[in-house]
Amino acid sequence: MDLATALGADSACIARDAGLDTSLLEVPDARVPVAVFYQLQREFLLQTENPDFGLLSGRVTYMEAAHVLVYLASASTTLRDWLNLMPSVSSLLGDLGVIKITRNVGEFVMEWHPEDPPQAKRCLISDNILSTTVLQMDSYCLLPVRPRRVDLSYPRPENVDVLESTFRAPLFFNQPRSALYYDRKVLDFPQLHVSTRIYEAVEEEFSLFFSSDNSVSDPFSLALHSAIRRQVPLGGGSIDSIASHMNISRRTLQRRLKERNTNFQQLLQSVKSGLAKRYLQENRLSVIEIAFLLGYGDPSSFSAAFKTWHDCTPTEYRHDSLQRRPRAEHGSGLIQDSD
Fold first, then answer.
1. Position 335 in a domain
2. Tens digit of each residue's pLDDT (9 = 90 or more) over 218-232
3. What is the pLDDT of residues 120-131, one digit of tens each?
4. In a 10 Å sphere around its CB, with 0-12 CB exposed, 13-18 middle and 19+ buried, how is residue 32 labelled?
5. Inside any domain, residue 182
6. Do residue 316 and residue 207 come from a single domain?
């Protein structure tokens, strides 16, 4: 809606004509019905009179998902690791479709498979998905990652300036599916690892998971905690998968955990519980995104688990946590309006 307003359209008029209940926009993690969402896209195009709205909205989608993808990049070693999370990431697209990755000789292809069959006219949703994906692919590697070819399922528009500036690759129109083609060598590019507030206080986090005589200087504890955090978003986290990730046997892992006065299930639940609280204390990730980061297939499963840990729902915990947080005072700022 903000983008439509920035382009000079009346967001209230768009919502009304699309049949959107604007109260949904005030509800955290609320989902817009698919039929309304599609009508909303048509109204965006009609009322902004901007055929590149889908490409521009991709920038917004990219920024909204940044916190999740920064975490995934930090939990990955290479782009290949990051892409292995894509089947789970695509679940955040709701009922719109899925991104499928196929491999050809010397390249891999990211195909957009919409729930509805591709149409013979320009599609804002396809533009949004491809634009978002191109930005994400190029943002979390230490080296540039650019597509070598872009397929689009609609005819060539009269003006392709924004398409060319967005993708910076040869464009092929009237293709069976919209898709991005990449050189396979980028799969081994190292991922960007950053430090944000989400990953701070590691020592405090470790003290919750291990007995007091095991500090963050314990190499095994560090390696185990890192392995769990990497495996959890994949939906893994079994004792066998963690042991395999650490290149040790299941029995060795169990023995070393016993030496630290804990067991695997207790540790796994402690890690998930602690991460859930940390994520919810920030208002940057939705409950749906947090559920995904903790390896749950849907928000209801995550909410049920969280309630067993903390006797309240994630939404209730977040509300109480934010209510208790002292309000920051507004400073004078470096940039001010002139008198």
1. no
2. 677 777 877 787 777
3. 678 888 899 999
4. middle
5. yes
6. yes
Residues 102 and 36 in one domain: no
Q: Which of 303, 89, 276 is nearest to 198 (CA)?
A: 276
Q: Crossing angle of helices 53-64/124-137, nearest 10°?
A: 50
CB 145 within 8 A of CB 179: no
What confidence tens digit (pLDDT) does each residue in 156-197 have? Answer: 999 999 999 999 999 999 999 999 999 999 999 998 766 544
Q: At 1, which amino acid appears?
A: M
Residue 331 pLDDT level (bands cut at 50, 70, 90):
very low
Residue 50: CB atoms within 10 Å: 18
pLDDT at 115 over 70: yes
- Give the type of residue at 45: L
Average pLDDT of the segment spanning 84-107: 71
| 234 and 254 assigned to the same domain | yes
Q: Which two tokens stand for residue 235?
A: 């939906």
Residue 92's contacts (CB-CB under 8 Å, 6 or more residues apart) are: 65, 68, 288, 289, 292
Residue 157 lies in a domain: yes
Does residue 181 sit in the same domain as residue 218? no
Domain contains 239: yes
Q: Distance from CA of residue 221 to its chain's centroid?
A: 27
Kindly give the residue spans of alpha helices, DSSP state H, lying in 173-327.
202-209, 219-231, 239-245, 250-259, 264-281, 287-293, 299-310, 314-324
Q: How far apart are CA 97 and CA 111, in angstroms?
A: 11
Q: What is the pLDDT of residue 152?
A: 94
What is the tally of structural domains in the chain?
A: 3
- CATH code, domain carrying 269: 1.10.10.60
Averaged pLDDT of the chain: 79
Structure-derived torsion over alpha carbons of residues 201, 203, 209, 215, reported in degrees to the nearest 10:
180
Domain interval for residue 19: 1-50
User: Do residues 57 and 171 lie in contact, with contact meaning Cβ atoms separated by under 8 Å?
Assistant: no
